[in-house]
Amino acid sequence: MKVLSRKSGFTLVELLIVVLILAALAAIAVPRIGASAANARIRACETNINIINGQIELYQANEGVAPGDIDDVVLNTDYFPDGSPSCPFGVGYAIDATTGHVATATHVH
After folding, report:
1. pLDDT for 28-74, tens place per residue?
2. Are 56 and 95 in contact (CB under 8 A)?
3. Contact call for residues 93 and 70 (beta carbons, < 8 A)
């Protein structure tokens, strides 16, 4: 009597189930990763603004006057020896004439 041997492996249905599970996990994970990246850029911009504002205050304490332009602070190697911080969104920072500090950028809100 001849015994039929069963080959080991995965059936098409099993592979399809695995693919569907992976697709469902990807559908959940991808939007969250995108949101995390945008959130990180916003937080980096907020941090840059806080650092620049701190250096503006230091400039005012050292010089006795407010800087006339943002370049007086960010291009000065006494305040930013490694170079000035740049906005991760590519927007330039500017001093608000009424407050004397860098205003919060619109993309940060």
Report:
1. 888 888 788 888 999 999 999 999 999 999 999 999 999 988 899 99
2. yes
3. yes
For residues 62 and 15, give the distance between their C-alpha atoms in angstroms, rounded to a whole number. 69
| Residue 74: closest CA among 64, 63, 59, 89 | 59
* Domain ranges within the chain, ordered by starting residue: 16-108
Give the Cα-Cα-Cα angle 93, 94, 98 (nearest 5 degrees). 140
d(C-alpha 6, C-alpha 97), whole Å = 81
In angstroms, the CA 9 to CA 98 distance is 73
Beta pairing partners, 19 = none
What are the structure tokens assigned to 103, written together? 């205003």
What confidence category does residue 3 fall into, taking pLDDT thresholds of 50, 70 and 90?
low
Separation between Cα atoms, residue 37 and residue 11, nearest integer Å: 39
Q: What is the rounded CA–CA span in Å between residue 90 and residue 86? A: 7
